[in-house]
Specification:
single chain; 99 residues; 6 helices; globular
Length: 99
């Protein structure tokens, strides 16, 4: 893919989402990896989305109980600067009995 442009459109399967600013991987490819990829693929893309995507966009790719919580211990070290944000949210949701 040459001349690729990143996009804010997370629904277009052929668009390269903005959180893939360094690689021309389309929304469709990301969604296929999350659905049918290896556990390593799922871990990689889940961490990348949590780390790089805007909060509202996260939930267009991921589900908390299906994708995030089962991998939480393996995801945490991969979240970089976003780790405190996600730790706070998940901690509060647990404290409030929501999860």
């Amino acid at each position: 893919m040459s001349g690729w442009n990143i996009s804010l459109d997370t629904s277009d399967a052929d668009a390269v989402p903005y959180f893939n600013w360094d690689a021309p991987v389309t929304n469709g490819a990301v969604r296929r990896a999350l659905a049918d990829g290896t556990e390593d693929d799922k871990l990689f893309w889940t961490a990348r989305i949590l780390r790089e995507a805007r909060y509202p966009d996260v939930w267009s790719y991921l589900r908390l109980r299906r994708d995030v919580l089962p991998r939480w211990d393996r995801l945490r070290p991969q979240l970089g600067r976003r780790r405190p944000f996600w730790e706070f949210l998940i901690g509060r949701w647990r404290d409030d009995g929501l999860i």
